[in-house]
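Write out structure tokens for GTPase Obg.
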Amino acid sequence: MAVNFVDRVVLHLSAGSGGHGVASVKREKFKPLGGPDGGNGGHGGSVVLRVDPQSTTLLEYHRHPHRKADNGKPGAGDERNGADGEDLVLPVPEGTVVKDSSGTILVDLVGMGTEHIIARGGRGGLGNKALASARRKAPGFALLGEPGEEVDVVLELKTLADVALIGYPSAGKSSLVSVLSAARPKIADYPFTTLVPNLGVVTAGSSRFTVADVPGLIPGAHEGKGLGLEFLRHVERCSVLVHVIDCATLEPGRDPMSDLDVIETELSLYVPDADLGGRPLAERTRIVVLNKADVPEARELAEMVKPDLEARGLEVFIVSAVAHEGLKELTYAMARHVEAARREVEQVVPQRIVLRPRSVDDTGFTVTKENGPDGPFYRVTGERPIRWVRQTDFSNDEAVGYLADRLARLGVEDELYKVGAVAGDTVVIGATDDAVVFDWEPTLQSGAELLGSRGTDLRLSESSRPTRDEKREAYQDRYAARAATQEELEQERRAGLWHLRDEDDTTD
């Protein structure tokens, strides 16, 4: 049997990598020193999930689970930048829940046109033109493009409907949907005819709502028996649950009361996603439909058990989908409960944009000491250090030196000193298996740098200027000290300790 409906898939997504920058020197006639003119690489394309009204199933992703966005183009000489990679937009049905490999919900895609970037493209590398500065006039290197993100996500489709018809297989749920709405599901007289949820739009007066026909449930559905576990997720978003009970069944050991108890047990044992804010299925509004009243024995049984069901506080309707009996009352009852559920939903408040600027003392990286199989080492983690490492061409000594300068300016070396690192220790930049490992060689410091940290001058550390009175007092102190020194010298001369030498005095 061909698969035409899929509501759960695992996707392997790869965003595009950024294009490499280029190291180039401008070459023109009569201009031997044209300078650097290498262009930047383009940014890689991102993978975007978008809610599309034309999409109703995840079948396409079931057949092709591996998707990749375009890479950015590399730069070129004459200051030509590479083109950005095109984003890969994946259309998904409304109600798709995106989870990571551990089961954590990343986003709930509700609302036509809603988008979410699931894998972000890598940044393009800078060319030597962009790396030129007053100190580095002609860089002989360029930065590499950053690799794009690679993620594995799980897409689960959870039907957006107001009312769910639930019950045993062949209870008449599909027939009920076909007469209440314009939907035309497959109808047959054998169990599990319905293999996929069927949606229909129902109008009752001024109210308009959707009804979902969920495949039949059997005992043990919450554990994966039958088709229940695969499709119970489509009931999570429904505010009203309608029990469709077959009063004309000929199976031994079944009656309307036992059928209701079995389905209620399965609903209570199913655990919906708490992160979506849904209530447990056992707390939803219930309506009981005693179907197939066109059969005389079924009508008698329905009228017999109706008082017992109403004694439980349930609203009960005796209907016949074939004879179109009791449908109007059922339709208006469902509309009444749907409108009540809609009024209970809190008004959606637009999300406020909160700006959280980074603290002034936040360096953007951390240095920790860890113990490995070969001894202790120091791990550096942070967005900028990891990105800089990925963009470095380690076959170019000048590029490696540029990386060392950037890390030093960021304060990585100072932090390594603080945590106790010494020359020759192992330093790891990155938190994954593809981290860069090297033996640390601290940057040599000159005498001026030993006077203070980089970028500071102790001679300019004074934060206040002397006042006029302070300057006058300091001048008077210097004048008094000079006068005292002259008076002391004059007393020593008078005492004969020394005398002034005349021009005619030739004695030593």
